[in-house]
Write a structure and sequence with these properties.
Elements lengths: L1 E7 L2 E6 L10 E8 L3 H8 L9 E2 L4 E8 L11 E4 L9 H4 L28 E3 L2 H4 L1 E2 L6 H4 L2 H15 L6 E5 L3 H12 L4 E5 L3 H10 L3 E3 L6 H8 L5 E6 L5 H9 E9 L24 E4 L6 H12 L9 E6 L4 H10 L6 E5 L1
Parallel strand pairs: 9-10, 9-12, 10-11, 12-13, 13-14, 15-16
Antiparallel strand pairs: 1-2, 1-4, 3-5, 3-7, 3-16, 5-6, 6-8
């Protein structure tokens, strides 16, 4: 079968792979819609995972089941399913410890696709523990909406969970690419009152307002810390969600966050050995400013709950999709868009 792969750092291309084997509890999926991600760009062009050869890319997919193992109880051939980007082994000790994304194979090992196994950018791909990791696409949900759930929606919402957003609070979302926009939508659902969305691209600012942002902060207009502290009369934010940006944004988040506030990070920090925390702004370690960072949980229940929000019209993730392609061969174009990030891009989708 054909697949789009990382050939080596800085190079992608089409390769031939053997059809994936289906284990007793597993499934084999034919993709219906695929979405290239910034994480694929980190992997290929920034060497985020180190040197890899012929690693199939991709972790955002919805598809149709073509094979299930004899132990799969809830799904059958022909079912159209959402495949979460994070597919933990649900029979590990880490599940009982409450960290399914970080199980016995090592840190972040719940993230398997294009990390510790081939990804979804192939004519067929494998899903481990199908009953626990797949979710049916609800009737009436578009493929564009569905393919935003595996990563963009769940990761953005996890930033909201990590920041512990509550009713009537002031929230800042730093970075309003697709994940940050989902953090905006999620923070509104969790009860944010005033919501600052930090970004510079007009299209993203427009969509952020549609999702409920009350204020847009453009870092090109000056330091975002000064802008937000001025707007809040020096009080700062109750909750800060970091969904994008360089390593300096962690320092900015600590300065923006009020004493007793919470910072939730779902951003990938890919450079440098250390991250800086400003000593005085952190109350020399005693300012009760909590910093949480995590990988979205993944799994079936998570996908079903994200889908339920969409089907009950709480928000529409389809607003993220700005570019669409018809045909598997256009995956390279979609990936190139995520690499180059033109001003009119939020998220591309390839319908297979």
């Amino acid at each position: 079968m054909r697949a789009l792969a990382m050939l080596k750092i800085g190079q992608t291309g089409w390769i031939q792979k053997e059809r994936p084997a289906c284990g007793v509890l597993d499934a084999v999926i034919k993709p219906l819609a695929l979405a290239p991600c910034t994480s694929d760009i980190h992997t290929v062009y920034e060497g985020a995972l180190g040197e890899r050869q012929n690693l199939v890319l991709g972790h955002e997919a919805v598809g149709e089941i073509v094979e299930v193992g004899c132990g799969v109880m809830d799904f059958k051939v022909g079912d159209k399913v959402i495949v979460p980007a994070i597919t933990p082994n649900w029979r590990t000790q880490a599940i009982q410890e409450g960290v399914p994304a970080q199980h016995s194979e090592g840190m972040l090992s719940g993230w398997k696709y294009s990390n510790i196994k081939d990804g979804v950018f192939s004519e067929l791909f494998h899903v481990n523990d199908a009953d626990m990791n797949l979710a049916l696409i609800p009737d009436g949900m578009s493929l564009s909406q569905a393919v935003m759930l595996p990563d963009m929606v769940t990761t953005g919402f996890h930033g909201v969970e990590l920041a512990q957003v509550d009713f009537g609070s002031t929230v800042v979302v730093i970075g309003i690419g697709p994940v940050g926009l989902m953090s905006v939508a999620g923070a509104v659902l969790r009860g944010a009152a005033r919501l600052f969305a930090v970004g510079s691209r007009p299209l993203c600012a427009e969509v952020a307002r549609k999702y409920g942002a009350t204020d847009i902060i453009n870092y090109k207009n000056g330091d975002i810390v000064d802008q937000i502290l001025d707007a809040t009369r020096g009080r700062g934010a109750d909750h800060v969600i970091i969904a994008g940006g360089p390593s300096e944004v962690l320092e900015q988040a600590v300065r923006i966050c009020k004493p007793g506030g919470v910072i939730g990070n779902v951003n990938y920090f890919g450079e440098g050995e250390f991250l800086r925390i400003p000593r005085e702004a952190w109350g020399v370690g005693m300012g009760h400013k909590q910093i949480n960072g995590g990988l979205t949980p993944g799994g079936r229940v998570r996908m079903e709950r994200m889908a339920a929000l969409v089907m009950n019209k709480r928000f529409d993730p389809g607003l993220l999709v700005t570019h669409t392609f018809q045909g598997f061969d256009h995956l390279e174009e979609g990936l190139a868009l995520m690499h180059n990030k033109p001003a009119d891009l939020i998220k591309p989708v390839v319908f297979v």
